[in-house]
Design a protein that fits this description.
Elements: E1 3-7, H1 11-22, E2 26-31, H2 39-42, H3 49-63, E3 68-72, H4 84-88, E4 94-97, E5 103-104, E6 117-119, H5 120-127, E7 143-147, H6 151-163, E8 171-175, H7 187-190, H8 199-214, E9 242-246, E10 249-256, E11 262-275, E12 278-290, E13 294-297, E14 301-302, E15 311-312, E16 315-316, E17 331-334, E18 339-346, H9 358-378, H10 387-395, H11 404-421, H12 431-445
Parallel strand pairs: 1-2, 1-4, 2-3, 4-18, 6-13, 7-8, 7-13, 8-9
Antiparallel strand pairs: 5-14, 10-11, 11-12, 15-16, 17-18
Helix pairs in contact: 1-9, 5-6, 11-12
């Protein structure tokens, strides 16, 4: 039996831990957050209860394995509670990093530091009650621009138009650099907000871009059959808030008002070009201004270099298979030393940011775990510290660890809070409150 550290407890990490644990090895999971789940807990839309409950049950099953240990509330990385070098001092045979993509692609625009400008990832964390984002300022005004045209943008629009308890947004504008045929959202997701689509404004927008769409052989008459089935349905009664689209537009600059909050977004107008069958956007010298008081950009995520793994081109560096360059490789490679970091692996979004949802993350975690198990077959057993020894060492750093039994106390405390408030579900949104709830629940049992 050998010891493997898994850093990060999202779907990729937990299912990797399960596969390694079921093979008979000791697995110690370190998680930044108090709760396990990662984006399955803090990224899936808040009201998708059945999905979240199902995933929580699967994660609980993983953590029920006696040789899989959970240490929550333990951030790993440079400048945090414990560095990778310090983890290595506990002598694990292998380490698997499943920390997700904790950085966001930045627009790099003038005025990006204005108030009211947020990355989609941070905004999703906010409305999903992830500490510390849940208690930070993510105030929303009346006119919100969402940059991006995928499912994340649709989720955010849904929150603003339907589930935001403050209901301040009167207009939500989806800003897309390409045209309506290049929309990346699923129709199932868009159906949740299609009743807010301003049909008249949408038709005006289609007229504005019609010549550019035709130039690449696209026919707007086929939109209802492709990306916008809502257009084939009868229009519904107009809503108090409305959803707009601004196609062929790329953000150019952000203009704050005297208070420092965004008041105007200047966009570059694009045309469409056909590049060997792939429709791309090409900037023109024309610009337009959108009067908005909030901007959320959903343009993808990147790995966080502060973790401390070799980093290049917004990602952790992995080895490649010389016989099959397209094959997914999970072992970390150090370009400076010119060698593989033996026994060090990345899985899930830590390996490839924004790639797929929970099912793909699970598959990636399990594929990575298979490579780990193959490595363990020939690796020498190390004098690895036990879970108990690691816990004692971390306590000396004054870390308030959250262990497997604590998760049960927390779940019961949140269930009780939901019942008292008459809610279907409830989440504590501050670490300190969660830790206090755990201690209170423990005391009640003692």
């Amino acid at each position: 039996m050998k010891t493997v550290f898994v850093v990060g407890a999202g779907p990729a990490g937990l299912f990797a831990a399960q596969k390694i644990g079921q093979a008979g090895h000791e697995v110690i999971v370190f998680n930044r957050d108090i709760k396990p789940g990662g984006l399955a807990e803090y990224g899936i839309y808040p009201t998708k209860d059945k999905m979240k409950i199902g995933l929580r049950k699967q994660f609980a099953k993983v953590l029920s394995l006696p040789n899989v240990h959970y240490l929550g509330h333990v951030p790993v990385g440079n400048g945090t509670a414990i560095s990778i070098a310090e983890l290595q001092q506990f002598s694990p045979t292998a380490m698997v990093f499943s920390v997700g993509a904790q950085g966001a692609k930045q627009l790099g625009l003038p005025g990006s530091d204005s108030r009211g400008v947020y990355s989609a990832k941070d905004f999703v964390y906010f409305y999903n009650s992830l500490p510390p984002f849940a208690t930070q300022d993510f105030s929303v005004g009346k006119r919100v621009a969402i940059v991006g045209m995928g499912n994340v943008a649709v989720d955010i629009a849904r929150w603003l138009l339907i589930d935001d308890p403050l209901h301040t947004a009167e207009e939500v504008i989806i800003v897309a650099r390409r045209g309506p045929f290049e929309a990346k959202f699923d129709n199932k997701e868009f159906k949740e907000i299609e009743m807010f689509l301003d049909r008249d404004a949408f038709q005006d927008e289609l007229k504005r871009i019609e010549s550019h769409v035709k130039a690449v052989g696209q026919d707007l008459a086929t939109l209802p059959e492709s990306t916008f089935p809502v257009l084939a349905k009868p229009a519904t009664t107009k809503t108090s808030s409305r959803l707009l689209f601004r196609f062929l537009s790329s953000p150019q600059s952000i203009h704050p008002d005297v208070s420092g909050r965004i008041s105007r977004l200047t966009v570059t107008e694009n045309i469409l070009v056909d590049r060997n069958g792939d429709v791309a956007a090409k900037a023109t010298d024309k610009t337009a201004d959108l009067e908005v008081d909030t901007m959320i950009f959903a343009i993808g995520d990147v790995a966080d270099p502060a973790l401390g793994l070799p980093y290049s081109n917004s990602a952790y560096v992995t080895s490649s298979d010389p016989n099959d360059p397209k094959k997914a490789c999970y072992e970390v490679f150090d370009p400076q030393g010119g060698k593989i970091l033996e026994g060090t692996y990345v899985v899930g979004w830590a390996r490839k940011a924004s790639e797929g949802l929970v099912g793909i993350a699970r598959h990636d975690g399990e594929q990575g775990a298979a490579q780990v198990l193959k490595y363990l077959e020939g690796a020498q057993e190390t004098n690895a510290a036990s879970a108990a020894e690691i816990i004692r060492s971390l306590h000396k750093k004054n870390l308030q660890l959250v262990l497997k039994p604590d998760l049960e106390y927390l779940a019961k405390a949140e269930e009780k809070e939901a019942q008292q408030r008459g809610l279907a579900w409830f989440k504590f949104c501050e670490d300190e409150v969660m830790l206090n709830a755990i201690e209170k629940a423990k005391s009640a049992v003692a």
